[in-house]
Amino acid sequence: MAFFQGGIDKVEAWIAERERSGIDFGDPRRRTPQGVLKAPKFVRFHMLDSGEGCDEIFWEDPHNFTPRRGRNGWIDSWGIYPHDNDGFREVDGMRIAERTATTQHIYREKENMFLPEIQFIDALITKKVSQLKQVDLGDLPQRDFTLYISLPFIDNPYDSRTDRYWRRIRVSGGLPLFVFADKVITPLWGWVRNLHAHIFHDFKDGALFGPKGCNAMDMMHLDKSGYKYIPEEEYCIAHILRTPGEVMGYHYDFGDNWFVDIKLEEIASKEESTGAVAVLDGAGGIPPDGEQTGTFHWADYLRKAARSPVGKRKAVAALFGATNYIQVGKKPPADPFSYDFDAFDLEGTRRAVRDALDSKASLPYASKKFVSPIGEQTPDSMLSDESVMLRLGMRLKDMKKGTALAQVPVSDTTFLEEGVSVGRKDNPGNTACANCGSPSDLKACGACGQRYYCSKTCQKAHWKDRHKNECKRK
């Protein structure tokens, strides 16, 4: 409430200043963070918006501005954030939060006037989408890509020249970004599917791609993660990576913030390619998902763990207290000092990815939420429109046909709840073979229609291996 009142006070102070100075309310000029009074080259400010807290880059023209570059000269997050000496973006979260509190009731979609920051990003999105329409991918969607996926900013105490956490995989260049995130990257690191938001960064120009309609809790931090992104569902890996050596970024969980580098190492010939997803190798254990442990927090835990027994005990406790460890029933070791943070389970990782491929796509518009019921609850009260809206951010009647609510306990008093597909089929243009992970030439199971296959060979293999016991003939 105090935050909201502070926003009102700033608007009133702005109005009073304008009246005292005699500046017309229609004057487009605003003071930049450096105190220079000037009109922005592209965006428009609402007459009640003083521009306080708005980064100076938004006074530029998005069609020809110079994006800010970070480590290795890469551009992340549309190129709008400054970077520190290590090349990591510096986001003034408090400044942005205060500006959001001040402007959230000034700009209204129905009035067709958006926040200047959104106006700027919308222009970049329009430009990028137009460029993507002109891209000729050739046969890249039919060729296999070898990708080296690593967690930057986490020191390797054994060899400073190498990554402590990394995975090497082979996937099709035509694998849709949504499938790549949901069924490959997430299980590859042992994280929880459909719990957090994510975005891909095209480091060539800073363009962002993310899940359409995502309502994950950490979406509240999108204004500190690029403001807006291109829906990823229409694009594949080859739309971002096309030349060996290129790297794209992946940002998972806008609250805790995990950052991932994805490097294209090799492109196989079309003749040698199968389209199948394969986990080839890796290093480092499963990083925590939750417990306020993103890239930098976990790196700090690991540094302290290496320095003292107390630090290691705290790191092990944080790891086994994370959602992804609790969800699968992992118990903390009796002796935390003997725990190996770097143990990599290749077969376990392959199994996790395979299980994800043999499942329905997550529903980002009904993402997982933590629920801790208070007081006496009945099944009817738990399923009331008001109750479901408070928990999931949507009403039951707004869920798509063939979907339902699913609940998974994480403790005696808390469960995770999300919308899941039951009878609803995956979009054949945005899924992968349930057996091998190829996105090409997909056809649904003729009996249940709930799994897709790239060939009869894959369908037969999957039938014998597991689908025979699951398939429901209609």
TrEMBL record:
Keywords, in A-Z order: Metal-binding, Zinc, Zinc-finger
Keyword hit for Zinc-finger: yes
Record bears the keyword rRNA-binding: no
Membrane-spanning residues: none
GO function term, MF aspect, one: zinc ion binding
Chain ranges of the MYND-type domain: 433-471
UniProt cross-references to Pfam families, sorted A to Z: PRiA4_ORF3, zf-MYND
UniProt-recorded name of the protein: MYND-type domain-containing protein
Species assigned in the record: Polyporus arcularius HHB13444
